[in-house]
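Input structure tokens:
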């Protein structure tokens, strides 16, 4: 009888220890899941911070200066020639030439430039005119994405010509700079 009691007691201990091991495994699994979710939340938080910084940069670059002016000579259709003068991006080479047509107009105090390749609208720039120069920044596409930051700075050469630079910084960090010329 004593042997039977010992066997039952040992069996009960083994059964209890199996339950404890299962519980420990479940707790370890839940802990791992929580750590993974925490890492995902930290990653999302970082992405949001980066987007917030990008938006604040974009907002600060498109703020209209107190010296913003209205110049009716810039309104209208312009032939645009862009020649690559500096690049460290794959698929882009110094000397590459791009041609577009820009329709420039004012929207309140801001300049709005619609860029067309052939008859297709490829992007919209907005910015301001001040002291014979205007600065433009490309707006986001319809999906709210901006695969690159594009800044254009132009100086009035004469009533039929602007000259300047277009700088593109892609999300992978590479940069392309174009010499840009607008003519009527």
């Amino acid at each position: 009888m004593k042997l039977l009691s010992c066997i039952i007691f040992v069996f009960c201990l083994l059964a209890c220890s199996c339950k404890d091991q299962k519980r420990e495994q479940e707790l370890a699994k839940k802990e791992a899941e929580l750590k993974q979710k925490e890492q995902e939340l930290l990653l999302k938080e970082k992405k949001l911070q980066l987007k917030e910084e990008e938006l604040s940069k974009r907002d600060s670059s498109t703020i209209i200066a107190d010296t913003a002016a209205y110049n009716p000579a810039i309104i209208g259709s312009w032939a645009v020639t862009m020649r690559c003068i500096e690049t460290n991006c794959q698929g882009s080479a110094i000397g590459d030439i791009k041609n577009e047509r820009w329709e420039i107009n004012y929207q309140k105090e801001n300049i709005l430039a619609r860029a067309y390749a052939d008859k297709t609208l490829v992007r919209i720039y907005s910015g301001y005119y001040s002291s014979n120069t205007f600065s433009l920044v490309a707006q986001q596409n319809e999906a709210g994405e901006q695969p690159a930051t594009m800044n254009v700075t132009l100086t009035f050469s004469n009533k039929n010509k602007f000259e300047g630079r277009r700088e593109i910084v892609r999300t992978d960090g590479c940069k392309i700079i174009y010499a840009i010329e607008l003519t009527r």
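Strands lie at 76-87, 97-107, 110-117, 120-130, 133-138, 148-158, 161-170, 175-183. Residues 62-67 have pLDDT under 50 and may be disordered.
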